[in-house]
Amino acid sequence: MDATAQTQEVIRQNWLRVQEQVAEACEASGRNRSEVTIVGVSKYVPPEFAYQLTQAGCDQLGENRPQSLWDKYQFCEERHTAVEWHMIGHLQRNKIRRTLPMLRCIHSLDSLRLAQALSEAAVAQGSVLTAFLEVNVSEDQSKTGLPRSQLVELLEHADSLPGLQLSGLMAMSTHGASATQTRREFAAVRELRDTLNATAPSTISLTELSMGMSGDFADAIAEGATLVRIGSSLWEGIDYHHA
């Protein structure tokens, strides 16, 4: 499927529907809609569809792979489209230097070594990168992210990471979990964020919670998410696998 006026309209309608659903979730939870940012996840789609999503009104895009981010960043830059890019997947240290100038923030900070490498590169480039610590709150071996003990250790080194602004936590719920378990996991992430905030160095303020995807963002919003990472709901009706 090629990017056409028809696909633009499908993506526009998807974007409007997702915005309405997020607004409804905020209202149901007694939260202000302005408290929640939608990050449109474009990790599976080609650049032209990601661009069409920006034309529908989504100016925050998330990518899993650095190479895909580079391609889409260039595609949008060539069309003078302002996008704030979020790295939501693993970032290898050898790709930091090229990727860093393109990023608004990284959601997947999962080791002290990566934090030190990001800090060093940001200082060298004269910038400060917003970063969320990826937490494996259930400590499930099949999931990525830091266990609680390593989160505490990383925060203890925060003052030696001048190129990073540690601003919150990122987490994913267990795949296939019930709604009750999902809510419990998101609540645990929020509670952990609050606990860490109370003991973190005074220079750190963990205000953000990046959690919730297409299937569970309403539960995430109910438990305090400030960013939701929505992908598949935005691409319904788009045959991007054969684009």
Please specify the SSE layout and strand pairing.
Blueprint: H1 5-28, E1 37-41, H2 47-56, E2 60-63, H3 66-78, E3 84-87, H4 96-99, E4 103-109, H5 112-125, E5 129-134, H6 148-156, E6 164-171, H7 179-199, E7 208-211, H8 217-222, E8 227-230
Parallel strand pairs: 1-2, 1-8, 2-3, 3-4, 4-5, 5-6, 6-7
Helix pairs in contact: 1-2, 2-3
Structure description:
An 8-stranded parallel β-sheet has the order 7-6-5-4-3-2-1-8. The chain has 2 domains: 1-87 and 214-243, Alanine racemase (TIM Barrel, Alpha-Beta Barrel), CATH 3.20.20; 107-211, Alanine racemase (TIM Barrel). Helices cover 42% and strands 17% of the residues. The protein has 8 helices and 8 strands. It has helices at residues 5-28, 47-56, 66-78, 96-99, 112-125, 148-156, 179-199, 217-222, and strands spanning 37-41, 60-63, 84-87, 103-109, 129-134, 164-171, 208-211, 227-230. The N and C termini lie close together (5 Å). It is of the alpha/beta class and 243 residues long. Helix 6 links the parallel strand 5 and strand 6 (164-171). Residues 55-235 form the Alanine racemase N-terminal domain.
